[in-house]
Amino acid sequence: MRVTKFTHSCLRVEGAGVLVVDPGEFSEASVLDGADAVLITHEHFDHLDVKAVTAAVARRPDLRIFAHPAVLKLLTDVDEATTAVSPGEEFEAAGYRIRAFGGQHAIIHPYVPVFANLGFLIDDGGANLYHPGDSFVAPDVAVETLFVPLNAPWATIAESLEFVRGIRPERAFALHDGLINERGAAVYGKHLESFSETRFARVEPGSVLD
């Protein structure tokens, strides 16, 4: 399993097939090139670029999109390419075994509407990784590679740290880091490096992780 971290919260997984998670409006345009399947954790623009995904299906009609039913209402122009996913469901996409967790976006504030959100555990039979979307929902299985939200309106570094410590992955990488400057990322990252009790790193967009 070869994983490329793109800007903010987007991952591209290559191996059995090409799987893209959360191609949002901050993501590089190339992330969807040649993709076999797309997982979308929730409907916010930084995780779903509707125009880019729609254009990708037009270029590659075999492209499959998997997301919560609440997300699919934004993708009616490519309805034939979509599959609704519910929390707890297991399915195959681009040759990987996927399991969906959670169901709800982390709370920003009681005044702010709560959206559907799925975390995805991606397994290629030899390794796995977990992308939580905008939540701190932990899977109920061992996680080898965890992508942990570093900064968000709904998150604190204390929550990020507890998320990693609770899951105890073999390694962790920063996710959801496109809303913070380099100084802030360094401060947040230092806490995770020092106290997460696993190997943690924040990598630049375009970095490839084997």
UniProtKB/TrEMBL annotation:
Matching InterPro entries: Metallo-B-lactamas (IPR001279), RibonucZ/Hydroxyglut_hydro (IPR036866), UPF0173_UPF0282_UlaG_hydrolase (IPR050114)
Top-level taxon of the source organism: Bacteria
Return the PANTHER family for the record. Answer: UPF0173 METAL-DEPENDENT HYDROLASE MJ1163 (PTHR43546:SF3), UPF0173 METAL-DEPENDENT HYDROLASE MJ1163-RELATED (PTHR43546)
What CDD domains does its record include? metallo-hydrolase-like_MBL-fold
Taking the record's annotation, the residue ranges forming a coiled coil are: none
Q: Which residues form the Metallo-beta-lactamase domain?
A: 7-176
- List where the protein spans the membrane: none
The record ties this protein, via Gene3D superfamilies, to: Ribonuclease Z/Hydroxyacylglutathione hydrolase-like
User: Could you tell me what this protein is called?
Assistant: MBL fold metallo-hydrolase
Species of provenance = Actinoplanes flavus
Signal peptide interval = none
